[in-house]
Amino acid sequence: MGRLQYLGHSAFYLEGSGIRALIDPFLSGNPSASEDPGVRSDLNYIFVSHAHGDHLGDTVAIAERTGATVIATNELATWLGGKGLNAEGMHIGGRSKFPFGRVKLTPAFHGSSVFEGGKMIYSDIPCGFLIEVDGKKIYHAGDTGLTVEMTLLEAEGVEIALLPIGGYYVMDIDDAVRAVGFIKPRRVVPMHYNTFPPIKADPQDFAAKAVNLALVTIMKPGESLTF
Ligand code: NI
Ligand code: MN
Question: Which segments of the chain have a pLDDT < 70?
Answer without folding.
Answer: none
